[in-house]
Write a structure and sequence with these properties.
The complex is a heterodimer of chains A (598) and B (99).
Chain A lengths: L2 H21 L1 H6 L1 H23 L5 E10 L2 E10 L1 H24 L5 H22 L4 H19 L6 H32 L10 H18 L8 H4 L5 H10 L4 H8 L1 H4 L3 H22 L5 H21 L3 H29 L10 H4 L1 H15 L5 H13 L6 H25 L15 H16 L4 H7 L11 H21 L9 H10 L1 H48 L6 H21 L1
Antiparallel strand pairs in A: 1-2
Helix pairs in contact in A: 1-3, 1-5, 3-4, 3-5, 4-5, 4-10, 4-15, 4-20, 5-6, 6-7, 7-8, 8-11, 8-13, 10-14, 10-15, 11-15, 13-14, 13-19, 14-15, 14-18, 14-19, 15-17, 15-18, 15-20, 17-19, 17-20, 18-22, 19-22
Chain B lengths: L2 H21 L3 H26 L3 H31 L13
Helix pairs in contact in B: 1-2, 2-3
Classes of the chains: A mainly alpha (598), B mainly alpha (99).
Chain lengths: 598, 99
């Protein structure tokens, strides 16, 4: 098969699965067959993506015209296979497959209809994500972007009968839609000024700044950066495997992916990059502080995701798409692993609360092993995948923005190790809580994806050199210097400190009270709630008044005019036969007179 | 008698019919007036046949008479209906469509 066919297969296998499950509802309603269809499609997509990578496919592009406008195509649709899209395709398909297999065990208590719906949505998600990944231009990327937004909404609200889940879904939808306006306006400005949607469009520097700033707004929303991050912790209302796939590994990384893709565009806008640097670093530190005081294991991981996405955004802001993309790849594996482990733990103890866990090391040996691998990778302990990519991110930040972002992310590296140490110690070590007594591992479908994902979480960092070669980045080498030594030192200190603080029962982090207060007060949430209530509803009220009294008034006026005109003409219709006869006679006479006088 | 005088006669008959149509309320009277107007036309046909010659005009008279008879049949049916519905044959009673 040619590269094009493989690429199309990777996109349309999940699409076919989704369509099949939507149309043939008997399959969907029976549950298990739906899972088989989706997983089969994912296997095909993954095989195609891996084949593309193994073949070392050169850059391939297939586009067909789309949206005709004045005799030419306004945009194109198709696929672009290059290093970035092929690697991303493989990562997305691999994580999706692991998550789907895990879901079969995790969701087995669901009624068959819900089970089928879940897998239909998973197939739809994989299709949407792949559409985004292979997009040859910004317009198709926007289509994929909105599709993943939709599937995210549907999957967060999977337990829609639960009010909190429905609210979380709506909140996520609102926040990301608000941000997506940036994408749309950026696209419009780009098209008006350059007439193209290409990744490599070259508008004037002034326009480039605006376009990238607007695109960055969309990235802030999708990748949960401050101040639009508030939807991500709430999105944990969805099933845990969904959190692993969408809200940790792939969908939220779409924002980072977009910037990597549009790197030529962003390279023309140093101002936007400066902004990204600060937003990324700020989010990383802020979210890490909040992760420290969460008692829900999924919320810890959610804030940790915000924080790690902050790393990626900061790296992109520092001008290194390679570092951001590398961290995206390793993060996808170890964060999906951590979430699936959390799912396994929640499945075992039937609670999200860290206080209901404890001592799970003996009950769940495989999960413990996998979680520790993921946590060490996330903490950036030397040798693990996360170390390599985080080191690269920090390395690119050296000296940028007056060293302050670098220092913030260094502090964040310490905090990351500290809060992951806290989770590991509280959940897996110490005395088992009453709920943890009866815990046991789920079946093979649950443990196998954990082991499979643990491998790249451990080793993916070694692929950095190859990735650099694929992306034509020179000068990537492991070295002993200020950044790696400081980062790994801080990670180890963080772990030791976590052990020292949290191994005692009732151990609390220093400043925990402050952070808890910050978390409880949730100023950002309140700000957006206020913006919604006073801003959006206020504007809507004014527009509603205008519509009711001005627009409707004009329409009613035209209605009254018609009725009045009708009433005036109505007098002619008397209903008396002689009047009509007279009218006919008069008309005939007039006709005769006209003919005679002419 | 000349053609012109005959045509004037036809016009007078037509106008009498028209006047009757416009001034009467009774359906039967109006029907009679319509008959006058139709026959004014027949007079014109007959006059041209007589003064200008040619059998086609006379044929037309016969044809028009047949049509008139049919028309009267329909008209009388309407009058019957009007009488059954309103108990009288004043046409102004049939003005429901106005409402």
């Amino acid at each position: 098969m040619t590269a094009i066919e493989l690429g199309l297969l990777a996109v349309f296998a999940p699409a076919a699965a989704a369509l099949l499950l939507v149309l043939l509802y008997p399959i969907r309603h029976r549950g298990q067959p739906a899972a088989m269809v989706t997983i089969g499609a994912s296997v095909i997509a993954l095989a195609a993506a891996v084949k593309l990578l193994v073949d070392q496919t050169p850059v391939t592009r297939l586009v067909v015209p789309w949206i005709p406008e004045r005799g030419r195509a306004m945009a194109e649709i198709g696929l672009q296979l290059d290093a970035v899209s092929m690697i991303m395709l493989a990562v997305v398909c691999a994580v999706a497959l692991c998550v789907q297999i895990f879901s079969v065990a995790y969701m087995h208590d669901e009624p068959p209809k819900a089970f089928g719906r879940y897998f239909a949505l998973h197939a739809l998600f994989l299709f949407s994500m792949n559409v985004l990944v292979i997009a040859p231009n910004l317009l198709q990327a926007f289509a994929g972007w909105e599709l993943v937004g939709l599937t995210s909404y549907l999957l967060i609200g999977f337990y829609f009968a639960k009010p909190s889940a429905a609210q979380a879904a709506v909140k996520a939808f609102w926040m990301t839609k608000l941000a997506d306006m940036g994408f749309l306006f950026g696209l419009l400005i780009l098209y008006v000024s350059t007439g193209s949607f290409e990744w490599t469009a070259t508008p004037t520097p002034y326009i480039a700044t605006w376009v990238t700033a607007l695109l960055f707004l969309a990235v802030v929303g999708k990748s949960a950066q401050f101040p639009l991050h508030i939807w991500l912790p709430d999105a944990m209302e969805g099933p845990t495997p969904v959190s692993a796939l969408l809200h940790a590994a792939t969908m939220v990384a779409a924002g980072v992916f977009l910037v990597v893709r549009a790197d030529p565009l962003f390279a023309q806008a140093p101002t936007t990059r400066e902004l990204m640097l600060w937003v990324g670093a700020g989010t990383a530190l802020f979210a890490a502080c909040l992760a420290l005081v969460q008692n829900d294991i999924k919320r810890v991981l959610a804030f940790s995701t915000c924080s790690q996405l902050g790393y990626m955004v900061a790296a992109l802001g520092a001008g290194s798409a390679f570092a951001g993309f590398f961290h995206l790849g390793t993060h996808a594996f170890f964060k999906a692993l951590l979430f699936l482990c959390a799912g396994s733990v929640i499945h075992a103890v039937h609670s999200n609360e860290l206080s209901d866990m404890g001592g799970l090391r003996k009950k769940l040996p495989v999960t413990t092993f996998a979680f520790v691998v993921g946590a060490l990778s996330l903490a950036g302990v030397p040798g693990f995948a996360g170390f390599f990519s985080k080191d690269l991110v920090l390395g690119t930040l050296e000296g940028k923005g007056g060293w302050l972002p670098w220092a913030m992310l260094m502090a964040c590296a310490f905090l990351t190790a500290f809060y992951m140490g806290r989770v590991v110690i509280k959940a897996f070590f110490g005395e088992p809580s009453p709920k943890a007594q009866a815990a046991h591992e789920g079946g093979l479908a649950m443990t196998a994806p954990l082991v499979v994902l643990a491998v790249p979480s451990l080793l993916a960092g070694l692929l950095g050199g190859r990735l650099a070669a694929q992306l034509n980045v020179t000068g990537y080498a492991l070295h002993v210097g200020l950044t790696p030594v400081t980062a790994s030192g801080l990670a180890l200190i963080g772990l030791v400190a976590a052990y020292a603080v949290f191994s005692r029962p009732g151990g609390r982090a220093p400043l925990a009270a402050t952070f808890e207060e910050l978390d409880r007060a949730s100023y950002v949430d309140r700000f957006w709630a206020g913006a919604y209530r006073f801003g959006l509803l206020g504007v809507s009220g004014v527009l509603g008044w205008f519509d009711r009294y001005v627009v409707d008034g004009l329409i009613n006026l035209s209605g009254y005019g018609t009725i009045a005109a009708g009433a005036a003409v109505r007098r002619l219709q008397t209903g008396r036969v002689r009047d009509y006869a007279l009218a006919v006679a008069a008309g005939a006479a007039a006709g005769v007179i006209f003919v005679v006088l002419r | 008698m000349t053609l012109e005088r005959t045509l004037i006669l036809a016009s007078v008959v037509f106008c009498i019919g028209l006047y009757g149509l416009l001034s009467r309320k009774q359906a039967v009277a109006m029907l009679l007036s319509v008959e006058l107007m139709a026959n004014a036309g027949n007079i014109v046909f007959a006059a041209f046949a007589h003064f200008k010659g040619g059998p086609s005009s006379q044929l037309f008279v016969l044809f028009a008479l047949a049509v008139t008879v049919a028309e009267v049949a329909v008209g009388l049916a309407l009058v019957m209906l009007l009488y059954r519905r309103h108990g009288d044959t004043i046409v102004d009673l049939a003005s429901e469509a106005k409402e």
